[in-house]
């Protein structure tokens, strides 16, 4: 089975560091960017018009600012392309809704790329946060408190502070 041909929109540092190397493991169909000379560094065909990129691929990955992603994502969805979207989705709730509506209307697949979600340090951080009891929460192993008692605050500062600390270690 042939890998899906994916076009890349954007050629900035994040595209160069994260998206292009990952997509090159499969089938990077080409790149479109405002600056073609930047796109040329990514080692894939460079398209001058975004519509030409859409013609060459089955899916589109985005590595552009949120406002640009929202606008061009609508065009890609209307062109029938599956979308690999960066976070944040858009620069406003209205633009995010417009993109979500275009995806739904076109019936194309879309996925939010969480590049570092499965990195070991991210997984360790999330596991640590899962162990922290929220301020004022009832301990998970204790019975629910009666209305006459108030749970004690957790030791060691706020859960947000402890999560921030664990992220640095």
What does this structure look like?
There is one protein chain. Helices cover 43% and strands 13% of the residues. The protein has 169 residues and is α/β, with parallel strands linked by helices. It has two domains: 5-112, NAD(P)-binding Rossmann-like Domain (Rossmann fold, 3-Layer(aba) Sandwich); 117-135 and 151-169, no CATH class. It has a five-stranded parallel beta sheet with strand order 2-1-3-4-5, with helices on both faces. Residues 136-169 are annotated as: Disordered. Keywords: Oxidoreductase. Pfam families: GFO_IDH_MocA. This is Gfo/Idh/MocA family protein.
Give a quick rundown of the structure.
This protein is of the alpha/beta class. It has helices at 13-24, 36-40, 50-56, 66-78, 93-106, 120-131, 159-168, and strands spanning 5-9, 27-32, 59-62, 82-85, 110-112. Strand 3, helix 4 (66-78) and strand 4 (82-85) form a beta-alpha-beta unit.
Classification by helices and strands: alpha/beta
> H/E element string?
EHEHHEHEHEHH
Look at the structure and name the CATH superfamily of the largest domain: NAD(P)-binding Rossmann-like Domain
Estimated radius of gyration? 22 Å
Number of helices: 7
| Poorly predicted spans | 142-169
Shape: globular
Biggest sheet: strand arrangement: 2-1-3-4-5
Q: Roughly what percent helix?
A: 40-55%
- The CATH class of the largest domain: Alpha Beta
The total tally of domains equals 2
Distance between the ends: 43 Å
* Biggest sheet descriptor: 5 strands, parallel
Seen as an oligomer or otherwise, the chain set is single chain
Strand count:
5
Tell me what the CATH architecture of the largest domain is: 3-Layer(aba) Sandwich
